[in-house]
Amino acid sequence: MKHKTIIEPFKIKMVEPIKMSSEEERIEYLKKANYNTFLLKSDEVIIDFLTDSGTSAMSAEQWGGIMIGDESYAGSRSWLKMEAAVKNLTGHEYVLPTHQGRAAERIIYGYLGGKGKTFISNTHFDTTRANIEFSGAEALDIAIPESNDPSLIHPFKGNIDTQRLEELINEKGAENIGAVILTVTNNSGGGQPVSMKNTREVSAICKKYGVLLLLDSCRVAENAYFIKHREEGFENKTYEEIAQEMFSYTDGSAMSSKKDALVNMGGFLSLRDKKIADACTNLLIITEGFATYGGLSGRDMEALAIGLKEVFDPSYLEYRIKSTAYLGNKLHEMGVPVMLPIGGHAVYIDAKKLYPHIPVNEYPGQALACELYTKAGIRTVEIGSVMFGKYDENGELIPAPMELVRLAIPRRVYTQSHIEYVIETFDEILKTKGQTVGVKIVEEPEFLRHFTAKFEKVETDNVVA
Ligand SMILES: *Cc1c(COP(=O)(O)O)cnc(C)c1O
Fold first, then answer.
1. Which ligand 1 atom sits closest to the C-alpha of 53?
2. Would you say 241 and 235 are in contact if contact means Cβ atoms under 8 Å apart?
3. pLDDT digit string, tens, across residues 283-315
4. Of the candidates 253, 277, 310, which is a domain's last residue?
């Protein structure tokens, strides 16, 4: 059968206009933003691929839920709905609502962390790492070696290296392990999934040594899609059942609901152990809010409870994963170097390969982000030496291992024709790649420089026709 177009499994009831702009205007906007896509105004952007976090379009049912949100301080009806939805999914007895993922992380890693503790993950997301390190503990990433090769095809590139895990537990002493954290899908590792087999093995190792296993479950529904279609024995399970099984191997979970719960703000911490949950509830009340809202409005909790169910709709998940893969595979076929296989929520371009004439200290990823914006108003983010680069004692750049640009796809927001527009833009990017120049940093803050650094285009005659 001929491959059919992946149509959006929804109709549009409400629209949000996109402000169109000309290339001349965008050249000016980008100059004013100092060639940093974080400093652009959203009205200056046509297609916003900066992040998939908090950018989902809510459904009519979620908007309906917003209207019936119960804003009672304690014991809100909307909280009870959210709590039931989270318990049904995670099977964890204790649920703490938080305003977003990092609030849950601050609480649990503040409690479990501290000097001398080690946390081990496939890859700690940056806020996860920051909260762990802020507590004085260390965070070690041990994804399988295959995850470091951007063009290598492997069905579960997000898996943790279980042999290394056991070695590390023995090396550090089980009593010094704060927790093992499985990030599903592995966001910083390209949105690559973790298999159920890997989860079971990790769980068995954690049980053997009495170490806590937590799930960073932001994209657990997208991960379930990959398991159903790539792992033997899951063909006839529903996506929700697969996610439930994954949670069943864990002692707790932190979720930024701004991803797979299809809301613009929200999160939670779920736990099996009463002692840990009680301690975390105390911390929650000190900085976030009472235990039945934790910094969320009743309406937020109502929408979150609905989103957590909607995300497991097979038509939605199929559209979600296939449309991301459609963009990534088209770019791959055109000769754009992309990370393979295509992950769940984003397409990553290998800018070092695309622009071999731009040296890493002229930030090829930032150059591509600028090109995509100028040519078509597409906003992306560099994930390379701008984000992770450091300097040695002589002030020379120590580059990141890869120079990537991430096209993160907001959920239910863009249509197939928006995606076609992005693909057409890459045609031009390829045609003019020899004339693309790098950038230099003219001003930067001490920490997290990618958010506010200022750049200039480099003057160079190093261009090829
Ligand atoms: C987004 C994210 C977080 C942090 O969540 P926020 O809601 O942004 O605070 C943690 N882990 C992963 C894997 C994420 O993608």
1. 1
2. no
3. 999 999 999 999 999 999 999 999 999 999 999
4. 310
